[in-house]
Amino acid sequence: MPAIGSAGSVGRNPALRHRFCPIDVMEGQLDRLLGAATMRTARIGVVPFEAARAVKPPLHGFSIYDDREVCVETLTASLTLSEPSEIGAYLELFAGYAKAAVYGAEARAIIARVLFELSAAAD
């Protein structure tokens, strides 16, 4: 987990490629993600395709705020979990993603490649 005062995020490679919005919007988001990946206070990881089988596929999005609270986004509701056993399950799941992810230059290279492919598709 990142240190206090910093932020960490791990995403799966397919999530960078899924077209939920117009290409120009995705290009802007990926550009900002590239910028965030260079910040000292952020640790951005990407689980590459090659490592995707090493982690359990996500069923829904979630955010871990600390060891006392996890926010889970489902199709119909946003849930705030505070039971230690539930939080432990999400901490374990995140640890698996974090272990399989690449960081730094490797993560930026994947994001830049997706950005290049999107730009080429827009032309």
What order do the helices and strands come in, and which of them pair?
Blueprint: E1 7-12, H1 13-17, H2 23-36, E2 42-47, E3 61-66, E4 69-73, E5 78-81, H3 84-100, H4 104-122
Parallel strand pairs: 1-2
Antiparallel strand pairs: 3-4, 4-5
Helix pairs in contact: 2-4
What do these coordinates show?
The chain has one domain (about 5-120). It contains four helices and five strands, in the order βααββββαα. It has helices at about 15, 25-35, 85-100, 105-120, and strands at about 5-10, 40-45, 60-65, 70-75, 80. The N and C termini lie far apart (about 40 Å). Residues about 1-5 have low confidence and may be disordered.
Give a concise summary.
With 123 residues, this protein is of the alpha+beta class. The protein is built from 4 helices and 5 strands.
Key descriptive features of the protein:
123 residues, 22% strand, 4 helices, disordered N terminus, three-stranded antiparallel sheet, alpha+beta, 45% helix, two-stranded parallel ribbon, globular, single chain
Summarize the main sheet: 3 strands, antiparallel
The fraction of residues in strands falls at 15-25%
- Give the N-terminus to C-terminus distance in angstroms: 39 Å
Task: Tally the structural domains.
Answer: 1
Q: Count of DSSP helices?
A: 4
Q: What would the principal axes of the Cα set say about the shape?
A: globular
Cα radius of gyration in angstroms: 15 Å
Secondary-structure element string: EHHEEEEHH
Q: How many E-type strands? A: 5
The helicity comes to: 40-55%
User: What is the averaged pLDDT score?
Assistant: 85
Task: Output the strand order for the largest sheet.
Answer: 3-4-5
